[in-house]
Amino acid sequence: MTLKVYTSILFLFLVNSVWTRTVRQVYDDLDPEHWSHYTSECPQECFCPPSFPNALYCDNKGLKEIPAIPARIWYLYLQNNQIETLSEKPFVNATHLRWINLNKNKITNSGIESGVLSKLKRLLYLFLEDNELEEVPAPLPVGLEQLRLARNKISRIPEGVFSNLENLTMLDLHQNSLLDSALQSDTFQGLDNLMQLNIAKNSLKKMPLSIPANTLQLFLDNNSIEVIPENYFSAIPKVTFLRLNYNKLSDDGIPPNGFNVSSILDLQLSHNQLTKIPPINAHLEHLHLDHNKIKSVNGTQICPVSIALEEDYGYYGNIPRLRYLRLDGNEIQPPIPLDIMICFRLLQAVVI
């Protein structure tokens, strides 16, 4: 199972470079006599590299409008400009677009022409970070695989906006203005293949409802979450990386076996209000508990398996897999208790 998880995550983060490299290999062999044609139809404000003719670089040009995009373009870079509107006109011929980077502009919802995004049928990656959006734009291209909306002013997610995005693997909404009321039980309906959901740095007080079942990475740092509902993670049985740093979790807010979940390999609970280590699963590999209020650590109590049984089965049994444990910023005094080392034989680093 672990191998499958790591394979999926590797795909999620490296697919950009694989596509780009493949496309470059195709176009690096172009006859130079064709370069003049590509240069002639290149917008004056932009740069069209001859060796990568399906990319258009219009970033950092002080643009207030999007120029006409040539039909050959797959990758469009428009970040770091002063663009306020998205209209259909510049994209009339751009029927092959796969990737649009519009980060760090001044785009508002009212500046997005109705239907302009959904008409980009082949678009897979849409970056709209650091703009002035107040809600998730809709409708969106049905084939979209990544949607990045970090650092906007989003406080509303329109009903059904994700319902047709079954190919979406990454949704980044971190550092917006989302309240609990913005995340209804059907908000993420339709995201059947979502792998990473980032809702960090919002204004949530509760764990979000109805997270897609296939989610592997759930990031909820820097909210005000106080309670983990009973059996919350049974609805997301594949979650592997869970980040809840900088929240308001206390011992009373965590069910007895709230984090005793076999799928979780990396659990981050730094900067909360815990006074003891919550029960963990033997499969957990990385545990971050720094900057809480923990005063002492008892290895026998927190060991997810019986130390006696561990002695019997040795390295061939279900010994705990914890490799990294961070406890600094608490009230714990060294040295590390011996029973911690006896239980977690695979530990490679303990920060205390």
TrEMBL record:
Keyword Ion transport included in the entry's annotation: no
Main location: secreted
Keyword set, alphabetical order: Disulfide bond, Extracellular matrix, Glycoprotein, Leucine-rich repeat, Proteoglycan, Repeat, Secreted, Signal
A family per Pfam: LRRNT
InterPro entries (UniProt xref): Leu-rich_rpt (IPR001611), Leu-rich_rpt_typical-subtyp (IPR003591), LRR_dom_sf (IPR032675), LRRNT (IPR000372), SLRP (IPR050333)
Functional summary from the UniProt entry: Plays an important role in generating and maintaining a transparent matrix within the corneal stroma.
Similarity annotation: Belongs to the small leucine-rich proteoglycan (SLRP) family. SLRP class II subfamily.
PANTHER family with a match to the protein in the record: AGAP008170-PA, KERATOCAN
Descriptive protein name: Keratocan
Originating organism: Acanthisitta chloris
